[in-house]
Write a structure and sequence with these properties.
Length: 282
Amino acid sequence: MSENEYPWTDGMRILDRTAELAHGQDVARSFAIDELLGREVGSGGAPVCHLWRHPRAFVIGARDGRLPGASDAARRLRSAGYSVLVRHSGGAAVPLDAGVANVSLVLPINGSRTQNYLADFEKMFLTIGRALSFYGIHIAKGEIAGSYCPGDYDLSVDGLKFCGIAQRRQLKAMIIQAFVLVEGSGSERAELVKAFYDEAAVGAKPDAYPEVLPDTMAGLTERAPSGPASAEEFSAAIVRALEELAQPAAPAPLERFPLHLLDVEAIASMSRTLRERYPLLS
């Protein structure tokens, strides 16, 4: 039995891809990596924290993809240089750029445990809260009405949302995903999401999509100037937080997941699979 108060951090490994910002890269690649890491962890591998960024992407939820004008809206975004994807985890539309840090906690599922997604979300809340506590920043959880990708585990500072959390569950692993607005304007990103729904949701019932109010969103550098100055600095704080949670008495560096273990062909194949699930937007 682990003596760790947070046993889900036992043996945690870090896969840090925040330096990969090649323009034109398919955002499906990062979700494919999450999917493959889930399989590896579910087969007995140690848990992984996957940190990544994308220079210009727009990721939507499955429900968004069924809106009447989703295909046209996605086509417009692609023409503007966005990599567009319908993600297989929960949630709604989210724009990604270099100022957004994406955090995935890939954890095993014990076959005897009951499904409790709120308890799983709590792990991400705890991790991000610990990371920002190093800067004296207190965060709150709870839905922020009018934010994009709204949910029970919206994370906010002074009432403005900076982070949303979604989850993908495999048979033997869970992938808890968070997008964190670190640098840049939250309201400008929200305007982009609002424009997507203004086009995609024409003819849809009002309850089929979220109403986005741009002034509900803010980046951390906007609301907490004393906080991390960049997405890379925030990602480093996440690693430090996990090290403290895993080994509170004497924190030590976590093992890095070697990049060479990532099978390039498997990633490409999984990326295609994720896109083929939603041919409307391919």
